[in-house]
Amino acid sequence: MSSHATDFYDAVIMGGGLAGLTLARQLRIEAPHIRVLVAEKRKHPVREAAHKVGESSVEIGAHYFGTVLRLEPHLREKQLEKLGLRYFFPQGANRDVTRRVELGPPVHPPVPSFQLDRGRLENYLLDDLRACGVEVLDDCSVKAITLEPRNHSVTIEARGAAPRTVACRYLVDASGRAGLIKRKLGLAREADHGANASWFRVPERVRIDDWSNDPAWKARVPNGQRWLSTNHLMGRGYWVWLIPLGNGSTSIGIVADGDLHPYSRINRFERALDWLREFEPQCAAVVERYADRLEDFLALKHYAHSCERVHSPDGWSLVGEAGVFTDPFYSPGSDFIAIGNDFAADLIVRTAAGAPTGELGERAEAFNTTHLRLFDAFLRLYSHQYPLMGNAQVMTAKAAWDNGAYWAIPALLYFQRRYTRLEFMASIDALMRRFFVLHARMQQFLHAWDLADQPHYEDAAANVVSIEWLRRLQASLEGPRLDDATLRARLEQNFAELESFARSWQTLASERNPSLARFVEVGEGAAIDISPLVLQPVSAAMK
Fold first, then answer.
1. Are residues 280 and 228 in the same domain?
2. How far, in Å, CA of 174 to CA of 317, rounded?
3. H/E run at residue 14
4. Do 325 and 257 belong together in one domain?
5. Domain span including residue 376
6. Cα torsion through 54, 56, 62, 66, rounded to 10
7. Tens digits of residue pLDDT in 364-403
């Protein structure tokens, strides 16, 4: 090697945000002997509750943080356990939250997830890595990259210091949307999803429970902690999030289809507030109290992005937003960090151990294929689906389906730690293909159902896990580790039940709208009782 030994690392991670720091922690846990350098552009400690979006986690990401990375003590002490995902569908002028159809749990789900103050978490991770002996540079920038298999070089310049060039066997791009490797190699690809977002933080708790004193509405969530949910205020083509943070601030964001709600309506705080006054006036009245005390404001146009490759046989990976990003609606960002970091960590550890080039290439190709197939499947949840968000019945069905599909296959595979087991993943390839096809057909059906009719709903509440099958799917994620044969059987059973669940919704929709009969799946298996999630329309008013 031409590099001095002191300048050579098993892995260099470009970026010390959530993806890069968690990968470094994972490597420290799984292979403490390997030498890792993390280079982060921001000076630390960073401010809490500012600028970083991605505060809500769901099951895969929460399991990665809490169990795989052993961060549960921090999550319990310094972050907030969330009361699930909660949705309020439109009613009238959206001036009375109690009249809106509410979809969400009355108590904390059995499998925990968390609201994350990104600044607080990233400060903790960086300090802990340094305390464990991992070399972490902050307030520095990457000036040059040379990609050579097993001998990449990176030139880093810290503020006030001379540039430093280091070499590594494996290079990880965790630089977020800067996409250093993606840009260098021309890997960027458009994602078929034209939504935009703006968001800001206010320095106090915004408790949606305080928006009404109606006793019946309050009794639906008897602990009075709706505010701990990731709350979504829904409308045609948009949703607004309300997310509490551990330091006492609240994150508020607008996410909207650019064709129905132009970016220019939300890309400045004053414009966003005017937009809220029009579409979410009850929320706007709350935000107005904090207009002169904002902690930040950011906006992002066409946030979804794809990539030609995220793991390479040449010894590099793109993790977090440096690779791909779908949509924040179901909070999948930390899920993709978890899965991508598992793949990268596997390749880094094997590369450091001197694994044969052919083996590393096979694993990188398999991981890349799985990662991008999951991205494509998740993107289908959102692409061209934002108009559905104003339809309480269709979106209730969609939330139930999307959660059921997630718990039945992708989340189960993650909790059972199978994504990096090539032989196992190859053995279920046919099942995964059937799953992706069914998933895509269901998204097409939901879109068609919304177009077929859109009756009006109000004064109702529902809970996805009031369906026993869905409750069991979610609760069983943290069950014991299964052997391969048992897990394959469980996945096949889950898929068969997904087919029955799809038919149940398709049958209901076709009974109300005969034109949808063409979507009803052909198959066997007892129907799943969806009656707890079937809403009764107030009127049959069409669009």
1. yes
2. 9
3. strand 8-14
4. no
5. 1-49+118-187+307-386
6. 80
7. 999 999 999 999 999 999 999 999 999 999 999 999 999 9
